[in-house]
What does this fold into?
Amino acid sequence: MESPTMKLICDLPSANSIPDNYVLPLEKRPCNQELGDDLSVTLPVIDLQETLGHGRQQIIGEIMEAGKEFGFFQVVNHGVEEDVIKGFREAATEFFRMPEEAKLKYYSTDMSKAFRVFSGSITSHTDTNDIRYWRDCLKIRCYPVDKLMHHWPSQPEMFRERLAKYAVAVKELGRRLLGLIAEGLGLANHEFFEGGLTGGDMMMNVNYYPACPDPSLTLGIRPHSDRFILTVLSQGDVSGLQASYKGRWIRVQPIHNAFVINFGFQMEIVTNGVLKSVEHRVLTNSATGRLTVATFTRPSMDCMIGPAPGVVNEGTNSPKYRTFTGDEFTEAFEATTGRREPLLDFFKIRHTQ
It folds into this structure.
């Protein structure tokens, strides 16, 4: 077992200012990137209740429109029971409330572990100065449940059971959404995303952002785009998530029991640029802590990933990206530190005249 070398943020002594290694360079601070939210724009909210009824085609159209315009949307009446969402969020909150020694025994920087805790996700801004971000995180491989459950902690009580129920329900929601997207793309096979493209272990980040003494100096998570096919986020009732839209940051307003849906780089490549992977970030606040649960649908590492055959053609919509494996994508993501243009450029096809 690794020896913890740091405290979790939620266990730091209360202070009137944040530690120096959480203070962002001036140009990276949220108050200097944009002056607040653009409140004139809100993300689409899509009601999934009629996906099996007469409203199915309208819902598919709304999903595709939101994916093209924003790369983000929220869903309600999604089929995941409120008790399942609330139950796991409560169990995760109890985990963060456990004594420091109980949590830190899970602290690890080993990304291969099925359950680990880390804090202050590090990003290097200079060769000698590592900046941390204001969050603690449980990183969990959460599906298939039967394969992975024994890696999860047995405390707090009911954590495993509630996580299992939540993971199964969110996996099914993701499957439904991807089926609707396959229809929206005009693919003959509505189960196109089944198999290798969603065959990797489903990953989960349970993020806890403690109340921050000075939110103007730091961020909970830096601006970034997700890497995988689909992200399903339970953000709770406390705001903090912002998505990039036409050069501005727009607030993703909390909606009770809703999920926020967004796409990763791999979805943008599979759809040949039709659906966008959009940058987003997390602000902190000084009044209260915030807990979110982000679940990522991932391909198997040996899966071949590239523009879907039904999306591209030899005429007006030729492939923009080459085909690659999940392993190759991971290597490219790490080499480019996930920066949008260098990463997509790595897989672009150079068309000759």
Residues 124-128 have pLDDT under 50 and may be disordered. The first strand starts at residue 45 and ends at 47.
